[in-house]
Task: structure prediction
Amino acid sequence: LGAAALATVAWSSFVLGKTPAFAPGVDTLAITLAVVAAGALVVPMRFVPARVMLPVTALCTVAMLVGPASYAYATAERGGSSPGPASGPARAGGGPALDGFRPRGPGAPGAPQPPPNPNAARPQGLPIPQVQPQAPGIQRPAIGIPQRGAPGQQGGLPPPVPTRNVGNQAALVEYLLASFTSETWLVAVTSAMQAAPIQIASGRPVMSMGGFNGADPVPTAAQLQRYVQEGRIRFVMAGGGPGGQGGGGARWAQTACTAVTGFQGLYDCAALR
Result:
């Protein structure tokens, strides 16, 4: 327990160190509590009264949770509507703090920048930028996340499943449901972005090959082949979906299974059972 507390607090301190201006002193407090608690835990039990162990254990818990709790509070307070949410306080340059292992220090992305010096001399030869007045009746486009609207309208989001791959999504779901018997998954697709609308429309589980955006190498060709042979899946939507290629399993389906007429990218693997 003492080792777990020290390891957890060490990682919390590393994460908190990416935003030194946020909650200063929390990492120092967590390290101090963890060292004290871990030191008490390694002492043999015969030298420590039993009544002391309960507060020591509570001290370990507080030490491990103080860092994550501060990040959770900062995330909830910051809010946001990003399609790729991340935890932690906002950086000076915008966005969450823990969005990759970025260098720190003056000039690093997201690092606090010193305020401009109004008395600093302008370099010679650089023209002073002129702000052009905006013509009446012309509105600048808003910058932000597009709002959901009817497909095809300006500002609306496109259909979740591209029509160039599966044709009519309703027809695809109807075809898959008509062929569904007792499989675990209705169909395997190349990413979670492609799986979501099919699963919502059908009410059946859909396998997201490649993970959320299709970049993960799962399932492998051998794994997907075993699922087919076990009767757990029949149809595979291979290639062309948003996000990626769906791992090695999608490539295997393109060569081993039969293409379904009328639905580009859909393969029927029933003959391999």
Notes: Confidence is low (pLDDT under 50) at residues 93-112, 125-167.
